[in-house]
Amino acid sequence: TACASGATAIQLGVEAIRRGECDRALSIGADGSATAEALIRFSLLSALSTHNDIPEKASKPFSRDRDGFVLAEGSGALVLESLEAALARGATILGVLGGCGEKADDFHRTRSK
Q1: What is the Cα–Cα distance from 83 to 47, expressed in whole angstroms?
Q2: Which sign does the torsion angle of CA 46, 4, 72, 38 carry?
């Protein structure tokens, strides 16, 4: 699912817990697309921020005076657990996932016909 792989990992973890296949799931998403080719292509599109002299001021996606985005890499991990398992071990409940889903116009998550 390309850019949405982290969200897909969360959904797959939730589905596995709901089916009773496991009590806990580790959902991990990563993006490692900061390549020279990507940098060149986004630069040619004028999509990158030009605030190179003060990098900490470059990323401001919701600002009126934004001038592009900062190409970067990152990852995140989320431990999901059934409510029953969390309560059984006396965990502090930090949040409850009410639902998740995905939409695609093809027959498979990553392959088209």
Answers
A1: 43
A2: negative
Place of tokens 């093809």: 106
**Digits of tens for pLDDT over the chain (113 positions)?**
556 788 889 999 999 999 999 999 999 998 888 899 999 999 999 999 988 888 788 888 888 888 898 888 899 999 999 999 999 999 999 999 988 887 767 766 666 66
**Angle, alpha carbons 68-74-85 (nearest 5°):** 130
Angle at 98 between CA 94 and CA 104, to 5 degrees: 125
Question: pTM, whole model, 2 decimals?
Answer: 0.69
One-letter amino acid of 72 = A
Tell me how far apart the alpha carbons of residues 99 and 34 are, in angstroms, rounded to a whole number: 32
| Per-residue tokens: 29 | 């998403």
How far from each other are the two terminal CA atoms of the chain, in whole angstroms? 15
